[in-house]
Amino acid sequence: MAEKLTPRAEDFSKWYTEIVQRAELADYSPVRGSMVIRPYGYALWENVQAGLDRRFKATGHQNAYFPLLIPMSFLQKEKEHVEGFSPELAVVTHAGGEKLDEPLVVRPTSETIIGYMYAQWVKSYRDLPILINCWNNVVRWELRTRLFLRTSEFLWQEGHTAHATREEAEAETLRMLDVYTDFATADAAVPVIPGRKSESEKFAGAVRSYSIEAMMGDKKALQSGTSHFLGQNFAKAFDIKYLDANNELQHAWTTSWGVSTRMVGGIIMVHGDDQGLRLPPRLAPIQLVIVPIYKSDAERSKVMAVAESLEKQLAGVVRLKLDTRDETPGFKFNDWEMRGVPVRMEVGPKDVEKGSVVLARRDLPGREGKSFVPQAGVADAVRSLLDSIQSSMLAKATAFRDANIREAANWDEFKAAVEDGFARVRWCGDGQCEAAIKEETKATSRCIPLDQPGGSGPCAHCGKPSAEIAIFAKAY
């Protein structure tokens, strides 16, 4: 822990990998492209899960589980779906020492197996809507991997719903995008841009795809969540039919939506600094660490009595840790800074005498982040400080993002913008134009924001008429 991190400005990619490993979030597994999520990293993921799961249940969704192995024929039923996922599939051809009659695909996503089951369950309009979410793992055989951001196996949630009408399904797609936007901003303190994906960037098999796009600390984009209106594509492929109120047979309308452990990577890259993680209080596994400071056995006895009393006073109020390790205070300070704990409480002999403690904010440097508060009523002070840190982290990330989104009216301005941030431009929406932009700049269309200014103007690349604004950026 004594060795300093590679500065973000020197090598952002190396900084990211070092921070994931030194903060003990995750490590590499012996299987190429897969990772081991360590307890501290998994606790962070559990808090992400809790924040999302609470929102899902508040909107009427229920959790369920579907099989990991899917018959190959299921994926082949939806043409765009199989074409989109074929290069990433892991396929089981043998089991029990024998060759299988039909290969089984290790789940890359669950639209097909869920479509098959919905067809068994849906008979009448009274059976709709079905609102189901799954917490599971999926496998996509990635060529270039990076811890949390892109791994061959990853954890996520995938929601799958079926509806009686197109209007209901479209409303569900946008409602879940709003849920993701609320979670990202309120819990992760990550400002995002919700918008529609281009035709070339949409999910394989969807009619329309939407995403929330976030700017990382190196000004690249990260797709942080997606919501898809699937129309009747999967309903027709799997024969999800129901009798409507007029006793006529209709195909259902379906949606799917997901957020993965990539969100953990986004939190790291949006908030981290050269000292390590900086975790938003609402998601931090440990919100407060108490560090007792003493030099002699006599001091230790007095300090520990107060520290343990404070621990009891704060238990159940915040997620906390009393650090009793046989290490120096300096080592502990650096260790907890690396791990991104929002608040450090220091208790030394003078604090015992004065009936006070030192509270140090992780989001502010040195003395700027320190305050002295009475031990009496410290719980209220800690709660207030955590709220202040949460708000401050969102405000700082928002200011950084907004300062690095540039309006580009022509091609030269566009190229300059995507070299150092996001370009906000008028774009014609043509696939060939999009491909040319990617070829020339390595930037991709991130989304067409839902919030549009209206009006029209020439496309920043090809000059064709454009009625929409799009966000382009280099991305993870």
Give the gist of this structure:
This protein has 476 residues and is of the alpha+beta class. It contains 14 helices and 25 strands. The protein folds into 3 domains: 12-271, BirA Bifunctional Protein, domain 2; 288-400, Rossmann fold, CATH 3.40.50.800; 405-473, Translation Initiation Factor IF3 (2-Layer Sandwich).
Describe the structure.
By secondary structure, the protein is of the alpha+beta class. The protein folds into three domains: 12-271, Bira Bifunctional Protein, Domain 2 (BirA Bifunctional Protein, domain 2), CATH 3.30.930; 288-400, Rossmann fold; 405-473, Translation Initiation Factor IF3 (2-Layer Sandwich). Helices cover 36% and strands 28% of the residues. It contains 14 helices and 25 strands. The chain has helices spanning 12-22, 39-58, 72-75, 79-85, 111-121, 166-186, 233-238, 262-271, 297-314, 329-338, 349-354, 378-403, 411-418, 431-441; strands spanning 26-28, 35-37, 62-63, 69-71, 91-95, 98-106, 130-139, 153-163, 192-196, 208-215, 221-231, 241-243, 249-251, 253-260, 288-292, 320-322, 343-347, 356-361, 370-374, 405-408, 422-427, 444-449, 457-458, 465-466, 468-473. It has an eleven-stranded mixed beta sheet with strand order 3-7-8-14-11-10-9-22-25-21-20, with helices on both faces. The protein has a five-stranded mixed beta sheet with strand order 16-15-17-18-19, with helices on both faces. β1 and β2 (35-37) form a beta hairpin. α2 packs across α6. The longest helix has 26 residues, at 378-403. It starts with 11 loop residues before the first helix and ends with a strand. The model has no long low-confidence stretch (mean pLDDT 96).
